[in-house]
What we know:
- With about 230 residues, this protein is mainly alpha-helical.
- It contains twelve helices and three strands.
- The mean pLDDT is about 90.
Amino acid sequence: IMLSLLKRGLKPIDSFTIMEHVRKGKGLTDEELKKMRDEKVEEWFINSCQKIKYLFPKAHAAAYVIMAFRIAWYKIHYPLEYYSCYFGIRSKEFDLKVISSGFEAVKEEIFKIENETFSELTNKDKESLTSLEIALELYARGFKVKGVDLYKSHYNKFLIEGDALIPPFNTISGMGDTAAESLYNAIHNEEILSQRDLLSKSKITKTNLNSLKELGCLDGIPEDNQVTFF
Length: 230
């Protein structure tokens, strides 16, 4: 808009001000209309400026395209790093049980969600579907997602081990960031003698502890510190 108005003879400051008003959907003032008509700006151009509600800046669009190329390059050449960042930063709904169960489990869950009427899905369902589709792509490229590991998992970062990702503690259903970090610190900074000991040395709840049990993270760790001799 600004460049078009400059070509049509308007002053730089007037061209810029009109552009700003139009791109923000504010239309044109009577004074701006007069200046445009004085320079014989076509009526179709003026009418368009009065109808526009929002315009995406050209520089912003160019930055998006450049960023997309960069992301695509990493996705091709550093796939696990890409998936690690995507699931750790962009993914809001990561179904740990399904995704760590493998290709077929992910595919089945996608089929289940897609066979529901999309308009009736919640935002959570839609976000979960996106994460599942990315996970399916990961498996199709020959990579894997392991289960949470009590001694290897980070509290909020997806770690890379060989051709697989190790999910963090905060992907466990019901475990928030604070509990996940306290669990990580307890494991790496304290001597854990039992499940009861882990519960007392971290900020996790009994529900969190049960989730760890269900995932097999506590296999080999006794429930209590007490030693039975007989």
